[in-house]
Amino acid sequence: MKRIAFSLFLCLLCAIGVAQPAPHRHTVRFESQHGESFSVFIDGELQNRMPQTRVMVNDVSPQTHEVIVVMKRPVEKAAVMSLRPGEPNVMVNINYDRRLERLYLYTPAHNRGDYVEPLPEIKVPKHGLVPPPPLGHPHVEVVDPRNVVVLYTEEQVDSMVVRLKGQSFDSDRLALAKVIVASAATLNSAQIARLAQTIDFSNSRVEFLKYAYHYCLDPVNYTVAVNTLNFSSDKRKVLDYIAAQ
Fold first, then answer.
1. SS3 content of the chain, % helix, strand, coil (to 5)
2. Among 187, 230, 228, 184, which residue's Cα sits nearest to residue 209?
3. Residues 157-186: pLDDT tens digits?
4. What are the pLDDT digits (tens) for 48-67?
5. How far apart, in whole angstroms, are the C-alpha atoms of residue 198 and residue 169?
6. Does residue 165 contact residue 177 with C-beta atoms inside 8 Å?
7. What pTM did the predictor assign?
8. Before 21, cis peptide (omega within 30)?
């Protein structure tokens, strides 16, 4: 009788074990935006033997993982992100900026299990350019824009200034300065001020400062950039523009 009862008890335990649902697993797809090949490491384990432009990783647990993407060409770059899947299928975009030689990773916020609240709305400038996702250090990228506060180094800004000063005409400097500030997207007020000082004509500098405001990391300190203007009337133009946004 005891043996029968014990057997029934074991069968009951087995049935309970079978009835428990398996932990939910996720699929993460990595895709290069410009066709560069790359390798993916998740928690230190290589996921693809040969570099590819698209990598699919199945059976990823819902916990937080360290993801490292390594690109060999056109230059060797690596970027790291923390990822906790929030949906069955997660897309990670890999974007390499050839002009700035920077590699960054980003994924829609709703794909992440650590997503808590909507990100603040980004004001889109009237010129129609949408600011690119915030960037961190060129070698260590944090995917959550709310946590990215790493600035460009002064050496990197020096390089931007040299490029601007290399332009023969003020109109060319203005056009290039707009491209630089929109591509960088994490310049602070003091760094934008340095770029503005390369533009000689007041009207052009006013136009640049209006444009750059939408990409400034610390708009509360933007008077630092505005003060590069020599005339009070020009400063008022920029400040009135900011107040209207």
1. 35, 20, 40
2. 228
3. 888 899 898 888 888 889 889 888 887 767
4. 888 888 899 998 888 888 88
5. 11
6. no
7. 0.42
8. no
